[in-house]
């Protein structure tokens, strides 16, 4: 075993006072959504808005004076980068971070704001790793690996100690999993305190590295994912044996459920979660029957999401819930028709968001037109009632499916 509970307890003493003991709170609205009794560990409240500070600081404090002078290097999609940069600056250690070119700008800017030198290379963390190792060899720097490091794993494990101190009777934990550093440390800590607890991993479906390793499969790995923080192609050599021994199962979470989880944290819990940070909740939404009635601890592991992406997710969720609906009407092209339709929609309680009047479609009579309308509704039932009412008026409404509605 690469780490033990003693290592995790030692890491807790190292980070005490420098890393926040974040709140672990009941989430009744998420419980109603999933059917489980949900408690959330708000790691998005750390200074750099993710759990990564725990492992990074544990590693940095163990460096020798010579290693501190030569500096540290890390590869990261954002959260580990910020954690290393922030605590390295606090400790006076030069830091260089290699980040994928696809990293959201908000994470790149935040890393630079802590004084680290940032190098952009490749599409994923795996791609960035090759550049990182090359720079490390050239400059003699110390690698602060995001997950495959004993001290980093021990630091991450301190989360589970806090969770079980705050809510001792948890039945299970559902933890985001990429390379496995968080779940390895957390599982050892949780099992040492409560041997019968189940620890589940939540993995992005586009990056099933752990799934493949556990099931001897070769599912394709890659593609643009909302959960870039856990988009890794290789499981850690140190973490995989611990995952095999301590994890109950891994659940693959697709993009639609990741989006739904991010939206639920924002709209129901009024808190920010990035895709990777919301993966645990995404797993509950993916397999609700598995957790129904159980007391579940979730780690909201990071809140560094691009505001533009967050805005898009919110609109897409409104579409999926039929609270924003787009449709096309066939109408006679004469004065007053548009006003009559607007009045009808108002009477039906719809809020008009957008109107596009089209006369040049060849499937429209010369004296007719197509009218594309986007409205806001109360819910799916309200949307269906509006469509029926428009059909009764002879406007032949056709629902325009968007990307969000079709998923």
Assembly type of the chains comes to single chain
Helix share, percent: 40-55%
Q: How much β-strand is present in the residues?
A: 15-25%
Mean pLDDT: 92
Overall CATH architecture of the largest domain? 3-Layer(aba) Sandwich
- Name the structural class: alpha/beta
CATH class of the largest domain: Alpha Beta
The order of strands across the largest sheet is: 1-2-10-7-8-9
Q: Termini separation (Å)? A: 42 Å
Q: Can you tell me the number of structural domains?
A: 3
| CATH topology call of the largest domain | Rossmann fold
Question: Could you tell me the radius of gyration in angstroms?
Answer: 25 Å
Our count of helices gives 18
Uncertain spans, ≥5 residues at pLDDT below 50?
403-407
Structural shape: elongated
The count of β-strands is: 14
> Largest beta sheet, briefly?
6 strands, mixed
What is the topological layout?
Layout: H1 5-15, E1 24-26, H2 28-34, E2 37-42, H3 52-60, H4 65-70, E3 72-75, H5 79-91, E4 95-99, H6 105-113, E5 117-120, H7 125-139, E6 142-143, H8 150-166, E7 172-176, H9 181-193, E8 198-204, H10 209-215, H11 239-246, E9 249-253, H12 255-269, H13 279-286, H14 288-291, E10 295-300, H15 307-320, E11 324-332, H16 337-347, E12 351-358, E13 368-376, H17 380-392, E14 398-399, H18 403-406
Helix pairs in contact: 1-3, 1-8, 3-5, 3-8, 5-6, 8-9, 9-11, 12-13, 12-15
